Amino acid sequence: MEYPHDFTTAILNWYAENGRDLPWRNAALPREQHAYAVWLSEIILQQTRIQQGHDYWLRFMKRWPTVNDLAAATEDEVLREWQGLGYYSRARNLHHAARQIVALGRFPDTIDGIKQLKGVGDYTAAAIGSIVFGLPAAVVDGNVYRVLSRCLGIATPINTSEGKKEFAALAQSLLPADNPSAFNQAMMDFGAIQCTPQSPRCLLCPLAERCVALRTGRVDELPVKVRKLKLSTRRFYYIYIRCNGHTLLHRRTAGDIWQGLWEPPLFEQEMPAGMPCVALRKQVRHVLTHRIIVADFYLLDIDNRDMLPAAVQQLLKEKDYLWVPESDIDRYGVPRLVEMLFEVVNA
């Protein structure tokens, strides 16, 4: 089919030949199951490369084949399965939204209804709504920003209010109302495969003749993004305490990173003097979106819990720590940095 805008036609023709074969795109699934599969993939892929996210999606679907199964899980189970993906609020929101869907009795089938789910914004709602329910809502993500800004030569910064409105309106104007699912997936795939951030395949691009960035030599300059982020650094000192086959763990609370995940005794800024610990590894750098954590790992072996250093005893009074059998430690969801500590302890 030819569409009024040749850009739309070119993108759809490219997608028909080059679209990715992804398991959650199985439109033959019953609609409720298809919605669950697409929603799960979109949440996982919000801050994750598709190569890594694909394996997590398969594991989630194997363990919790339906949204009812996921809703029946505990938060700890979901966080443990999510371990390694980072941005753990996604896992908590996923679990909460699964229970919302079960309480509703079905997956919501309108954009406004989908956006009521915890952790679902404009992009995710448009992706689910268009792919599963055929709703005429354009998706706008990093791939879409890149394709549109390069092809049409738009230099408006994509991380400004003006840019977000401009690109959203443009994407919506190009969306074919009778085939929003294919177009949105085409834009995602075109940006991921053809119009990549580095070394795009311009010589083999079906949009090459009309691409403003290619014609003007600005492919590497577009899209434009205003740099606002300044990374802060935090200093962590972790102590893995071993006592007769048990170790101490504490669940991190709200208001900071890694909410709901577990960790061993932690001191920030400085290590208390006189701690009878063995240094395992120092200056371990762990980079998050808004901060860099520099951590030292220590091991403390004791024969009796009464032998805990005073600084650790004070820490136990301030926070709720549990003595956990080391054989059960894999049952607790931990951030990647703590997982690294465990790997060093068990090396």
Q: What does the model show?
A:
The protein has 347 residues and is an alpha+beta fold. 44% of the residues lie in helices and 14% in strands. It is built from 14 helices and seven strands. Strands 1, 2, 3, 4, 5, 6 and 7 form a seven-stranded mixed β-sheet that branches. A hairpin with a 3-residue loop joins strand 5 (278-287) and strand 6 (291-302). Helix 8 (122-133) crosses helix 11 and helix 9 crosses helix 11. The longest helix has 16 residues, at 89-104. The chain is elongated, with a radius of gyration of 24 Å. The chain starts with 5 loop residues before the first helix and ends with a helix.
- The total of beta strands comes to 7
Q: How many H/I helices?
A: 14
Computed Rg:
24 Å
**SSE sequence, one letter per element:** HHHHHHHHHHHHEEEEEEHEH
Percent in strands: 5-15%
- Distance between the amino and carboxyl termini: 60 Å
Spans where pLDDT lies below 50 across 5 or more residues: none
Helix proportion of residues, in percent? 40-55%
Q: Name the average pLDDT.
A: 93
What class would the helix/strand composition place it in? alpha+beta
